[in-house]
Specification:
This protein is an alpha+beta fold. The protein starts with a helix and ends in a 28-residue tail after the last strand. The chain has two domains: 137 residues, q2cbj1_9rhob like domain (Jelly Rolls), CATH 2.60.120; 42 residues, no CATH class. Helices cover 17% and strands 29% of the residues. It is globular and about 65 Å long.
Length: 215
């Protein structure tokens, strides 16, 4: 992403101090710190995130001028002492991003998992035995249901929130520190669109009665 050490340090410091009493894995969203995007230390990250999202959409041929793009939550994660993150998805957002503040050597790569390998046109075609017997002429990342991705410090990773992912254990005593970000897109103007979420300004909140509603 190209942030300087001076820009990264206050962000890492805040997450490290929040997680200092936690052994193993720390997740800021679980201790109520899920709005890092509202803190001044994180401004450089979120300013650059906009560029990253724009590039991501352009790569897919998506015109973002139809949408308002919201950060719905963002939180720090710290992993140390063999801790890992089990497979999960971010069900309640559209895009997710992770920015890496500290990555120790062998510090836990992220792995994406796919339920179905679309290009496996015959059942069992991409089984490892078919590399050994010559049916497959090479190992190819497109043959895999799980794709590991080696992350590095200062990298911004953007992916669909529905994609299952997990983080390998970080055996180091040095923390693996990252910022996770969930992003929701709403239409700027709902006219003419059957898909997508209408503008937030058109929503209204229901007053749900509290207590028993039996009478
Ligand atoms: Fe995640």
């Amino acid at each position: 992403m190209g942030l300087s050490e001076e820009q990264r340090e206050p962000m890492a410091e805040l997450i490290l101090s929040s997680s200092s009493n936690t052994q193993g894995a720390y997740f800021g969203d679980m201790d109520g710190s899920s709005s890092l995007h509202r803190l001044p230390q994180f401004l450089p990250l979120f300013q650059n995130l906009s560029l990253g999202i724009a590039e991501y959409a352009e790569e897919l041929g998506v015109d973002l001028s139809f949408f308002d793009v919201h950060v719905s939550r963002s939180w720090g994660t710290g992993l140390t002492g063999g801790a890992s993150i089990a497979p999960h998805r971010h069900w309640h957002s559209h895009l997710s991003a992770v920015y890496y503040l500290e990555i120790p050597p062998d510090g836990g790569q992220i792995t994406f998992a796919f339920e179905d390998i679309q290009s496996e046109f015959m059942p069992g075609l991409f089984a490892q035995e078919n590399v050994a017997n010559g049916v497959l002429t090479r190992n190819d990342v497109r043959h895999r249901a799980k794709v590991p991705f080696q992350v590095r410090k200062d990298m911004l990773l953007i992916f669909p929130s529905k994609t299952a992912h997990e983080v390998a254990s970080n055996p180091s005593e040095d923390k693996r520190v990252s910022v996770a970000i969930d992003i929701l897109l709403t239409l700027k103007d709902a006219a003419g669109h059957e898909q997508f979420i209408p503008p937030v300004s058109q929503w209204s909140k229901l007053n749900i009665p509290s207590g028993s509603v039996d009478d």
